[in-house]
Structures are given as C-alpha cells and as structure tokens.
C-alpha cells in the first residue's frame, strides 16, 4: 500500500513515522511547503518515503490513500482534490475553518463514493473504546452524568491561538466528539462559561484559557466538560460515566497528572503524561491502522465528515453561549448557519 501525506508539521511528521511502521504500508509520498520538512521526514523513514513538490504531485504518484495534516484552511481543497482523484482520505480535524465551509465539503463529497476519515483519535483509545462497549452493553444502566476533561500542560503559542477559532473549536471539540461516540446520544443544549487567569495573549485574542460547559443530551443525561490551557502537572484527559447501575472512568491510571493529598495514598504512582502524543501514541497508531483498512476496502470510515460536523456544531453552540452568557440549543446554531 502506498500512502501520501500532505503537511509535515508536528502531527504530519508524527503520522509519517507511524505509517512507516505499519504492516502493509510499503511506501510513502510526502509533501510540505517547507522543503526541509519533507527532506527530514524522508531521511528518517528508512528508505520508505519519497518527497513530492506539491499535493498534486502526491496524487499523481499512484498513492492508494492520502493523509492530510496541512493547515486547516487547506483542508477543504485537499479533501476535494483527493475525492476527485478517487483516493480515500484521512484528514485531521477540523474539516474546514468554518461550519459553512464544512457543510459545503459534506455536500460536495456526499455522493463521491470515496471514503473520508476525520482524525478524532480518542475513538481509538482502549479506555474510551471499553467505555463505549460498557454503555452499549447496558453495564451502567441508564446514564445520568458524564464528565469529560481535557487539560493542556501549557498554552499553544500566540499565532496558533489567534487562528484556532477558540478553545471550544480547537480543544473541547475532542470532548464533544467522544461524548457523542461513547454515549451514542446527541447534544441538545449547552451552557458554557470561561475565564482567563493565565497567558494574556489568549484574552487579547478574544478567547478563554479555562472553560466549563454543561451539555444536555437528547435523553436528559448531563455532560460536564472541563478544559484549560494551563495544567502544570501534565496533560490530563479523562472521562467519567455514571449510571443507575454502575460508574466507570477512563484515564484513571498511574500516569494521571494529579497528586493525591489523602494520607497514605500512593496513587497515581507513575510519571504524568506531558503531551497529547504521549497520552495517545497507541490510539494514533490504531487510528492510522484503521485508515489502512479503509483504504483496502475492508471497512467504512470510522469517523465521517458528518460525524466531525456534529462535534463542530456543539463547539459553535458553546462559543455562542460563552459570548452571550445564555443556554444555546444546538439546533439554533445549525439553523443560523
């Protein structure tokens, strides 16, 4: 199998290394506007990768599938180019820089007959997959409360924040997607709030560095989402699910970046996770392995454009709720778009 990679920044280079180690991936064709980035990836590939000078050259190189890890504003054009070429696509989230563009992409590819997988890696984490199975199997009984947490060890740089679309669209959207996926329910209404007690450039960009959102699901289950750009102890991603028959947790393991002050407590005993690539290394590998199965025609996309847009609508609703300090129904932002 021959896979193309478009965009070789931090995550694109990481994906290239992961793909090069997957059974069944025989070669890679990589491209990036920065030629040195492509040369570096080729040099680390053990002879498995070759460089191309443009996305068009990648598609012309006989690739069986493409991975898009370029800047967000390039996603729509690259997705559509691959679909026109009949090449299956893996694209990092988001689908596009705005929901309007995202809907346009969805409409353009709906009948294209080409599988598109959007990168929401938590769906491939063993803990989240086990939680989904427990919910689907009825082990917890009806749910009443879900808690989802994403805390970054440090904020991204100012240029990233300014172009991110805000913390709900950039960070919390992972929580929104995994809540939908694990519970099998849709979000009906949100109420969000936020504040800034850290890096001044985040507030100057009109964003919040710490947020909380209460999501009301379509069966009246409540989901509480907590996010921050500042968590000095490490990268903290967790989920709790509380039902009438049982309660479970994802991420409650020895590398959890929390310190217990209970007398005699030795948990957690491991070195805290310090970055998302560390916390989700196995999930990224499983996600890209799934994409090779999509390319081979062995399974449909496990995270479609439509799936990604649903998480996006929740992020839009939370962004509006924070700005206007009121509850917002997801149907409201969907209709306004």
Descriptive overview:
The protein is globular and about 55 Å long. The longest helix is centred in the last third of the chain and has 20 residues, at 305-324. With 337 residues, the protein is of the alpha/beta class. The chain has 13 helices and 13 strands. Strand 9 (210-217) and strand 10 form a beta hairpin. The chain has 2 domains: 2-114, Rossmann fold (3-Layer(aba) Sandwich), CATH 3.40.50; 123-275 and 311-336, Dihydrodipicolinate Reductase, domain 2 (2-Layer Sandwich), CATH 3.30.360.10. Helices cover 39% and strands 21% of the residues.
Task: Please summarize what this structure is.
This protein has two domains: 2-114, NAD(P)-binding Rossmann-like Domain (Rossmann fold, 3-Layer(aba) Sandwich); 123-275 and 311-336, Dihydrodipicolinate Reductase, domain 2 (2-Layer Sandwich), CATH 3.30.360. Helices cover 39% and strands 21% of the residues.
Q: What structural class results from the helix and strand content?
A: alpha/beta
Give the helix level as a range of percent.
Answer: 25-40%
Distance between the termini: 40 Å
Total beta-strand segments: 13
Percentage of β-strand residues: 15-25%
Q: Which sequence of strands runs across the widest sheet?
A: 12-11-7-10-9-8-13
Number of self-contained structural domains: 2
Mean pLDDT across every amino acid position: 96
The level-1 CATH class of the largest domain: Alpha Beta
Gross morphology is globular
């Amino acid at each position: 199998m021959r896979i193309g990679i478009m965009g070789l920044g931090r995550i694109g280079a990481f994906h290239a290394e992961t793909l090069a180690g997957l059974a069944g991936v025989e070669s890679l064709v990589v491209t990036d506007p920065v030629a040195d980035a492509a040369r570096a990836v080729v040099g680390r590939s053990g002879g498995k990768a070759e460089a191309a000078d443009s996305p068009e050259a990648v598609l012309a190189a006989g690739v069986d599938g493409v991975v898009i890890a370029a800047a967000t504003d390039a996603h729509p054009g690259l997705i559509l180019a691959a679909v026109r070429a009949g090449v299956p696509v893996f694209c990092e989230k988001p689908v596009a820089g705005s929901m309007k563009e995202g809907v346009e992409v969805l409409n353009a590819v709906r009948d294209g007959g080409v599988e598109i997988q959007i990168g929401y890696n938590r769906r491939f984490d063993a803990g989240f997959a086990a939680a989904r199975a427990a919910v689907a199997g009825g082990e917890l009984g009806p749910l009443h409360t879900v808690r989802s947490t994403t805390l970054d060890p440090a904020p991204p740089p100012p240029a990233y924040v300014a172009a991110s679309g805000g913390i709900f669209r950039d960070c919390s959207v992972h929580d929104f997607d995994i809540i939908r996926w694990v519970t099998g329910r849709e979000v009906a209404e949100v109420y969000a709030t936020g504040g800034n007690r850290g890096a001044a450039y985040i507030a100057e960009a009109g964003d919040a560095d710490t947020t909380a959102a209460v999501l009301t699901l379509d069966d009246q289950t409540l989901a509480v989402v907590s996010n921050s750009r500042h968590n000095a102890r490490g990268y903290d991603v967790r989920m709790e699910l509380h039902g009438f028959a049982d309660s479970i947790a994802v991420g409650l393991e020895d590398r959890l970046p929390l310190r217990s002050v209970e007398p005699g407590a030795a948990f957690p005993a491991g070195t805290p996770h310090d970055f998302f690539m560390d916390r989700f290394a196995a999930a990224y590998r499983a996600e890209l392995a799934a994409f090779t199965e999509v390319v081979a025609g062995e399974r449909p996309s496990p995270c479609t454009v439509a799936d990604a847009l649903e998480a996006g609508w929740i992020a839009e609703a939370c962004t509006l709720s924070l700005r206007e300090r009121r509850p917002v129904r997801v149907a409201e932002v969907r209709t306004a778009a």
